[in-house]
Amino acid sequence: MTVATVSLETLADRYDLRVPRYTSYPTAPHFGPDVSAETYGAWLAALEPGTPLSLYFHIPFCDSMCWFCGCYTKVVQRYEPVRAYLDVLAAEIDLVASALRGRFGARHLHWGGGSPTLLRPDDWLALTEHLRDRFDIAPGAELAVELDPRDATEDYVRALAAAGVSRVSIGVQDFDARVQAAIGRHQPFDVVERVCAWLRAHGIEDINLDLMYGLPHQTCAGVTAMVDTAHHLAPSRLALFGYAHVPWMKSHQRLIDETALPGAADRLVQFRAAADRLMALGYRAIGLDHFARPDDALARAARTGRLRRNFQGYTADDAAVLLGFGASAIGSLPVGYVQNTAPLRDYAEAVGTGRLPIARGFALGAEDRLRGEVIEQLMCQLDVDVPAVCRCHGFPADMLAAETASLGPLAADGLVTLSDGRVTITRIGQPFVRLAAAAFDAYLPSGRARHSRAV
User: Fold this and answer.
1) 50 forms bridges with which residues in the sheet?
2) Angle ∠(83,89,92) on CA atoms, nearest 5
3) H-run or E-run covering 117
4) For the chain, which ranges sit under pLDDT 50?
5) How far, in Å, CA of 76 to CA of 78, rounded?
6) Helices (H) and strands (E) in the chain — how many of each?
7) For the stretch 201-217, what's the b/e string if a residue is b when 16 or more beta carbons lie within 10 angstroms of its beta carbon?
8) Could you tell me which of 416, 396, 399, 397 has the C-alpha nearest to residue 407?
9) What b/e readout covers 369-390, taking b as 16+ CB neighbours within 10 angstroms?
10) How many CB atoms lie within 10 A of CB 61?
11) CA–CA separation, 16 vs 435, rounded Å?
12) What is the pLDDT of residues 373-394, one digit of tens each?
């Protein structure tokens, strides 16, 4: 096949489509009420004792709303709602632990939000102590926390270290004051630098920085400078997320001036400039939008084919079971997905009456698992031998031949290469990997409007 020479601007315009981020397959818009609390209870009871677990805890509170945010969170000015929520969270932990057959171990734990930084130091210690009462936290387990540097204190960092936290992800977005003003998040560089110093002083060496492109007033030169500034903080990992502007889903995003947002072509140029700079600085490109030092666990997982993708993004965690705790949290088991109810009142009411607070989910079939593995390999390794995966799942080698063939236009534009059913994402195609994955998504036509832009 002859590959055309196509400009980045043309590619951006041609493929400016809406597709999922594929942190699961099927994706959350396709979850439904057929999976109930009773279903989840049966799934938990069926897990073999000794199955390693990963645990996720959602803290759905912030003290201010960042205009770009796409997470489920509530703004609070008092600590009482947070304190009450933690009591419910502890009760949900008890419900889940009681539904399991025996005592299970956990080797990856992640706190997200919202902002877990709102938790008081003594509550951090109490929550992790409660977890250790109900689960065996494996020696060397990774405990990771998302942190807002604007609210963090050294006492808070000290409590994280005492609780065993080993990795922290810091939300940065951009260091430029004009960009920060346009997204409602004032965060000077020295605030982030100070928190990084506290973390290292208390023994937390693994620091992730979350950066964004596609924000108001960002430029190619600006995102390159953003990367250089982030590198000064010596993170072990960086994420380079494309801003998802979905004001029909997140009404607070209407506060952002849409006329200041870069177009599709500018977004693609920004990503390429930032990614090139990160690799020039010695970071390894991981999947769609992550970069890591060569000695980081994520880079090692990518090199050895063990990189995985879940609701927290890319991970070196290979546990087959992820249990989600808290309002709106999503869990993943070999048989399917579950999601907790989001309204805080409904969540507290369910747990208070002794019910698992499940609102919806999805029971996986054999074809779902097949397509899910193809999509995950594309998203993680940027490469998949489709016929081999089909045979591994007990399907004919040509089961997904039509879907593979549908990637012909992407191949003609140099975004993928196709060879005997093998799909490989090219360097220029890296930002478009979600489009290649979408070719194997049997549910996408009914949910396309709910997703973010591909670039």
Assistant:
1) none
2) 150
3) none
4) 1-2, 447-449
5) 6
6) 16, 19
7) ebebebbbbbbbbbbbb
8) 416
9) ebbbbbbbbbbbebebbbbebb
10) 22
11) 10
12) 999 999 999 999 999 999 999 9
Of 267, 260, 268, 303, give the one whose Cα is nearest residue 284. 303
Rounded to 5 degrees, φ, ψ at 95 are: -60, -45
Domains and CATH numbers, the chain: 1-27+366-455 (1.10.10.920), 28-325 (3.20.20.70)
pLDDT of residue 9: 78
Tokens of 252: 């607070």
- CA 91 – CA 127 distance, rounded (Å): 11
Q: Which two tokens stand for residue 253?
A: 């995003």
Peptide bond into 26 cis (omega under 30): yes
Residue with tokens 């594309």: 378
Gap between the Cα atoms of 137 and 53, Å rounded: 10
Which of left, alpha, beta for 203 (phi over 0: left; psi -120 to 50: alpha)?
Answer: left
For 107-147, what is each residue's pLDDT tens digit?
A: 999 999 889 999 999 999 999 999 999 999 999 999 999 99
Length of the chain equals 455
- DSSP letter at 343 equals S
Rounded CA separation 234/284 (Å)? 14
HSE value, Cβ hemisphere, 13 Å, CA-based, for 151 = 19
The backbone torsions φ and ψ at residue 309, rounded to the nearest 5 degrees and listed phi first, read: -135, 130
Can you give 167-192 as a three-state secondary structure string?
EEEEEEECCCHHHHHHHCCCCCHHHH
Looking at 44-117, which runs of residues are DSSP E strands? 53-59, 61-62, 74-75, 105-113
345 contacts 323 by C-beta, under 8 angstroms:
no
How many CB atoms are located within 10 Å of the residue 411 CB?
Answer: 20
- Among 380, 388, 387, CA closest to 404: 387
* H-assigned helices in 297-339: 297-303
Beta bridge partners of 310: 313
Report how far residue 214's alpha carbon sits from residue 244's, in angstroms, rounded to the nearest whole number. Answer: 8
For residue 138, the 8-state DSSP code is E
pTM: 0.93
CA quadruple 355, 82, 322, 436: dihedral sign: positive
Beta-bridged to residue 122, according to DSSP, are none
**Is the CB of residue 415 less than 8 Å from the CB of residue 268?**
no
Strand segments (E) across 258-329: 284-286, 290-292, 308-310, 313-315, 321-325
d(CA 134, CA 338): 21
